What we know:
Layout lengths: L1 E5 L1 H4 L7 E3 L4 H11 L2 H6 L10 E5 L2 E2 L15 E6 L5
Parallel strand pairs: 1-5
Antiparallel strand pairs: 1-2, 3-4, 3-5
Amino acid sequence: MAHLFFAASIQRHIPTPEREVAAHSVGEALSAAFTEEPRLRGYILDDQGGLRKHLSIFVDGNPVRDRRHLSDAVTQDSRIYVVQALSGG
């Protein structure tokens, strides 16, 4: 099962412990987390179902490419990290 982590900066707003999820895509992994914590959906996804601009997701160290549909593949050994994006100068 893939391992899903949420950064501490996200957990400050909504407690989301790391968990094992059965998923073939990033979207499926997030859906599993949303089932357990429905409030998380609005924090992670925009009103179109895409990843919010202030967040980034990494699968096995690589940033997701499909921020709109979250179709990037995951394997049973994948490590998925959801973090707040940094900006500034």
